[in-house]
Automatic annotation (TrEMBL):
Domain Activator of Hsp90 ATPase homologue 1/2-like C-terminal: residue ranges: 22-159, 190-322
Family recorded in the similarity comment: Belongs to the AHA1 family.
Protein origin, superkingdom: Bacteria
Protein name, as recorded: Uncharacterized protein YndB with AHSA1/START domain
Amino acid sequence: MPVIDITSDPEALTMTVVAEFDAPVERLWSVYTDPRQLERFWGPPGWPATFALFQLSVGGRALYAMNGPRGEVARGAWEFLAIEEPNRFEVLDTFVNEDGSAIDGMPTMRMTFGFEEAGAGSRMRCVSHFTSAEALEQVIAMGSIEGTRLAMGQLDRVLHDLREYSQGQGTQTEVLSDTQVRITRLVDGPRDLVWRAHTEPELMKKWLLGPDGWTMTECEMPDAAPGPYRYAWAPVDGGEGEPFGFDGEVTLMDAPRRMVSTEHMTGTEYPPTLNDLQLYEEDGATLITMIIMYPDAATRDMVLATGMTDGMEASYARLERELLAV
């Protein structure tokens, strides 16, 4: 993780984030001042950001929304107070309504972003200045420290070429918290086709099979959200293993970028998970990111112990081999 320190100072009324990166200052500056790159890490996992406005000039504004997996939306606005490329910019950060107006009772923070050389890479130092100790406590109580740490953990991937950073690593599983796991896999193919492979039953049956020796016996997907779905698998020709399946509801479809769904093991009393699929394309390759939210750490550990990562890797390798290589 790039974050090396997050501290709050009730006397100085500040919260300071320090992070270091294996990239030059100019590259770090560019990801913070290009809204399309900023969107890839500004929101924490499961809360991707969208910048609808970004006026990089003194007096200009930026408007953003972070979209949660259950339909929640957290909106903010920046007013640029100072810009000193490539080393520093300063904004007023405000919690806003859908129309861009400030939300009553929510604090406004003055934030300074500084970028400097650090060894062979660079260091980012962000200081948020609050108007009162109560405002600082309010933001901390909202989970800003852990949210910032998780959001910044996504920045390394943005700073580097996607193929260079992810190709050949296979399926990667990261435990983010007691209830949250992130799974990533780079596949060599366009996002539109990868989206279709996750939403069209005739394509899903060709690759979403886990280890060799299994077949998908049922695959029902909705045309739009919200809508129910169902998958089922069985061993081929009486092979080892018991048939099983999953059912749930697709709650969000934003083709070809994002799909959120509940997932329950059919015929069991296991609690459902919430699965947040996100697709990002760069230079003809697509990064698949799945954020899985479990009800508790015990359920998380039980599922991970089943060999889920290996099964997903077998499926993703088949996706590249059967669909994307055509």
